[in-house]
């Protein structure tokens, strides 16, 4: 009889020895020796996704930008959503931890019943009960432990996603603000052009009234002036929409949000030190989140595999039972029970096999997502490094074009006032200068955007 009592335990140990190990994960994409767009070598560094990104936006030395980024950190709704999802994930971790702990409860009840087995004419009986119960599932095959591990990894992924969302909100706030400032400068430039066209129109009208030129010259200047005024209105509309987008990023109502115009754009353009990409890329939170999700999917494969093995639950109950309330807590009314339950499904129509296959499919999906995030991380850095290098060269070339166009406008204006050149030559010179100055401004704006983009691609600041 003693040997028979040990039979369930021996069977469980035998099945535990036959448990299938978790699948191994393929290697992640090989890191390059160095970035294509940088001569600095790639440095092998430990993951540092939990490291503080620092106040990287202060490198732009713009107090208005500092204030907007801080307001976005407090009011951005995407950050608040990510924080709420992190709180939910942490609650699931505590729930998984609770499943591994003994479950203790107390209860009391009163039952009054009569049945077919009651003697004829007997009155219904009353049974009063009070006691405590304890149950504990023996995690012999690691199912509960793996559930807790998977929940913990999910929480880590949510924490990394919160970091990623915060970094994204900061970067978008900075880029949108810098776009507004670029529009302010461009609008001032167009206003300056309108003033020059208005002066030319007055001069042309005087010469027309004096009979020196034909009415066609006056109409040409009027047309150029009106077209430039239309361009200014289009820029005003674009500026208003960009300002409204900035209001949403900082979590405020667009109707009550105003950003004062600053045509004198003095925001500093930081230069990221060489070699930074090699050591900072390890902090990218989106890659860390994908890795944690991958490990969680791997753990859930083990959970699905553990469904093939029996479950063992230990139970214990103790308390009092009596038909009279006054006798309920007497020692003679005590009652207790101890039990062990072993359950093993024999036939489930393929449910457990489907669970394993589904978990394996989710693992394959998580692996593809992780590899994709790693590849995108390398691409993002390469894109921004290439953009900054080429924009620097483009800015130099565009600066020379602006200087030449400005000189041409000055000479044409002088010659036109002296009657040495036609009005068309002056208008062409001014159009060329305006076009080149606006292109130079766009190149400068792109440099700011690419700098913020590189900071985001690196996972934060480099301090």
UniProtKB/TrEMBL annotation:
<dbReference type="Pfam" id="PF02321">
    <property type="entry name" value="OEP"/>
</dbReference>
<comment type="similarity">
    <text>Belongs to the outer membrane factor (OMF) (TC 1.B.17) family.</text>
</comment>
<feature type="coiled-coil region">
    <location>
        <begin position="218"/>
        <end position="245"/>
    </location>
</feature>
<keyword id="KW-0812">Transmembrane</keyword>
<protein>
    <submittedName>
        <fullName>Efflux transporter outer membrane subunit</fullName>
    </submittedName>
</protein>
<dbReference type="InterPro" id="IPR010131">
    <property type="entry name" value="MdtP/NodT-like"/>
</dbReference>
<keyword id="KW-0472">Membrane</keyword>
<keyword id="KW-0564">Palmitate</keyword>
<dbReference type="InterPro" id="IPR003423">
    <property type="entry name" value="OMP_efflux"/>
</dbReference>
<dbReference type="GO" id="GO:0015562">
    <property type="term" value="F:efflux transmembrane transporter activity"/>
</dbReference>
<keyword id="KW-0175">Coiled coil</keyword>
<feature type="signal peptide">
    <location>
        <begin position="1"/>
        <end position="21"/>
    </location>
</feature>
<dbReference type="GO" id="GO:0005886">
    <property type="term" value="C:plasma membrane"/>
</dbReference>
<keyword id="KW-1134">Transmembrane beta strand</keyword>
<keyword id="KW-0732">Signal</keyword>
<keyword id="KW-0449">Lipoprotein</keyword>
